[in-house]
Design a protein that fits this description.
alpha/beta, single chain, binds pyridoxal-5'-phosphate
């Protein structure tokens, strides 16, 4: 790796371990070395040299209550003493069943059958398998493709990659490996709506479902659309008898301003995927939740109609304890009001970016603030300048974004927005 490692003060474990680590989305030869972290608290990341960075992105939007929340910690500690994990084939435990019941209660429509897994990508894979098998179980053959949207991101495993944006996703690289789906423009205006309608008219018979991140396409570029788009998708799905799948792995649990984006949009999908903030950013867990109609297609005397999936660590008891504790916090603390306050502060704090050269658009929805640039020439350099300004912000593509913890203080949030304005404004 180029550049020095972060300072003389880097701990022994860092120098000794770094040559054996393979980092995500990183050209290992040229990427700047990662920052050694020793602790977290609240919205702070503490580095080995004692510096504290204010976290602008809550560890890929997971840590919605800030780091080290005492309520989640206590729940996980209790669970650790009692039973860290037990397999979910043939055995059930309180944490998972309670979590499933609570998720069913807060999700819209009749989404009430929860299949647990351990990561978002896997939850998407399961949703896709569920949709394909739904049609097979109903005696309908040939429905194995999906409609997904440009700008979308659904994960890094093979099945999920195949429904990501073809450009920002990895379709060129893995083309020969990936199944082929229909990746089209979101039906936002007349032209894209007509193209979408015509695609369904021609191909509905091979399509199992429509897959979309509702209201915000996250890792594909933090692009927003409005509820009317989702209503149009729901109508199209109903007209052609397709399943509508919402990937709320990014938007779920308050990020866009309501507990789920689909609640705000007033549109219920047939299947929803959840992960990221499900455990408040503490342990890996994901859920694929099916509506009654979907589940009923699997309810049969025939063993081969069972859903054929079962991750080893599904419904991990520690993770379920964390998720239940996280749901407690949504009930007991004013998270959605905090998100509304953050939205206002992001609006005001990022507004000065609108005047900066190279800034294409500034947009805010809930606790998501986005500054979209024409391009970012030196993304590693930009990341380093944010760290030097005392904040952890990780731009991607041409996008600088803030997705802080909902518990962030106004002062900390102001430090984040000032840093964005200052760093982007400096030549
Ligand atoms: C992060 C994300 C995924 C993938 O989740 P992993 O846990 O990283 O596998 C899928 N869909 C959306 C919308 C995401 O934001």
């Amino acid at each position: 790796m180029t550049d020095k490692t972060p300072g003389e003060s880097a701990p022994d474990w860092y120098a000794a371990g770094l040559p054996h680590i393979w980092l995500p989305y990183a050209q290992m030869r040229t990427a700047r070395p990662p920052l050694p972290v020793v602790r977290t608290h609240g919205c702070r990341i503490v580095l080995a040299d004692g510096r504290e960075l204010i976290d602008g992105i809550a560890s890929w939007w997971t840590a919605c209550h800030g780091y080290n929340h005492p309520h989640i910690r206590a729940a996980v500690e209790r669970q650790l003493a009692r039973m860290p994990h037990v397999m979910f084939g043939g055995l059930a435990h309180e944490g998972a069943l309670t979590l499933a019941r609570r998720l069913a209660a807060v999700l819209p429509g009749d989404l009430d059958r929860v299949f647990f897994s351990e990561s978002g990508s896997v939850a998407v894979e399961i949703a896709m398998k569920m949709a394909v098998q739904f049609w097979l179980n109903r005696g309908v053959a040939g429905r194995t493709r999906f409609v997904a949207f440009k700008g979308g991101y659904h994960g890094d495993t093979t099945g999920a990659m195949a429904v990501c944006d073809p450009q920002s996703g990895m379709h060129a690289l893995f083309g020969g490996l990936l199944p082929r789906h229909y990746i089209v423009d979101l039906p936002r205006e007349a032209e894209s709506a007509a193209a979408f309608a015509s695609l369904l008219d021609r191909h509905a018979g091979e399509i199992a479902g429509i897959l979309v991140e509702p209201l915000v396409q996250g890792a594909g570029g933090m692009r927003f659309h409005d509820a009317a788009v989702l209503r149009a998708l729901r109508e199209a799905a109903d007209r052609h008898d397709l399943l509508l799948i919402f990937d709320e792995i990014f938007t779920g649990f308050g990020r866009t301003g309501s507990l789920f984006a689909c609640t705000a949009a007033g549109v219920a999908p047939d299947i929803i995927t959840l992960s990221k903030a499900l455990t408040g950013g503490t342990l890996p867990l994901a859920a694929t939740v099916a509506s009654r109609r979907v589940f009923e297609a699997f309810w049969s005397e025939q063993p081969e109609r069972a859903l054929m999936h079962g991750p080893t660590y599904m419904a991990n008891a520690l993770a379920c304890a964390a998720a239940n504790a996280s749901l407690d916090l949504f009930e007991e603390e004013p998270r959605l009001r905090q998100v509304a306050d953050i939205a206002q502060a992001l609006e005001q704090g990022l507004a000065p970016c609108r005047g900066l050269p190279g800034v294409k658009e500034v947009r805010v929805m809930g606790a998501i603030g986005v500054v979209e640039l024409d391009r970012i020439a030196d993304i590693e350099g930009l990341r380093a300048r944010f760290a030097a300004a005392g904040v952890f912000i990780r731009p991607f593509g041409a996008t600088v974004y803030l997705t802080p913890a909902f518990t962030i203080s106004p002062d900390e949030l102001a430090v984040l927005t000032h840093a964005v304005v200052k760093v982007l404004g400096a030549p």
